[in-house]
Model the fold of this input.
Amino acid sequence: MQYRRLGKSGLQVSEFSFGSWVTFAKQVDIAPAKEMMAAAYEAGINFFDNAEGYEQGRSELVMGQAIAELGWSRDSYIVSSKVFWGGSKPTQRGLSAKHVTEAAHAALKRLRVEHLDLYFCHRPDIDTPIEETVRAMHNLVVQGKILYWGTSEWSGQQITEAHVAARAHNLTPPTMEQPQYNLFERHKVEADYLPVYDTFGLGTTIWSPLASGLLTGKYNNGLPNDARANLPGYEWLRDIITGEKGRARIEQVKELAKVADASGLPIHHMALLWCLSNPRVSTVILGASRLSQLTDNLAALEAKARMTPEVLAAIEAVMGNKPAAAARF
Done:
């Protein structure tokens, strides 16, 4: 495992990290969660990602119990939460100062920690002034409740506005963004954020590097019974995969598999390493519902040398979707 700076901060994050979305408290209870977190930690992973919106906070309860039982030294790992979807009432949602503050305290209790290392605005909130959210985050930093704050799926313009507000009022600006990034979803990371990387030192903790499993090839012949897309509440994912766009993407996955085979790589390893090949990526968040899946994904790190310029060019030839602005990379 190697480590990368989280943007311009001094925080060193493992190039692969481990997240709990969809799995913890939905597919995974405490025993397998603890087993996977222990394996991840032993492999060098130091960042564990979570959110108030993951199973209505139950995901954080599972992770908090696992961390407590594993007995890790608090200075040896990084844990996050995200704020936006805390409940159905107006004061339980969004990025108002009230919800940002109360959600942070609730996450601390569920995760059984005294501070959050990373705290994300899970989505932009058009009903709350950005300055209000920035000030709420700054206050939590000053109080020692969070160390770094960031955004998730914000636009480059919104991130810029947050920095402008922070500078104007001498507040703490955001450090990192958590966007979706994979071979199919590239615009934000490779184009929209270009103006803010060097200007503000933005770090990225990317999610869905395997496009919800599409880039494993497991959907090439239909939906397996144990697929995430068959879970209750994830009908939207099933519709994406089985729709016209999904079928076209599956055809591209089949072509990518040929590139992977020629390179001596499983396609999902190639997809993960492709994400890591972008120097703007601080860490790639892995998800897993069982230990063997996590162990397999971690094994991709052993094959970095296979991601040659020729392989990257062959991937681009299949995808044909590199944003024009990305030529500046």
User: Anything to note?
Assistant: DSSP finds twelve helices and ten strands in the chain.
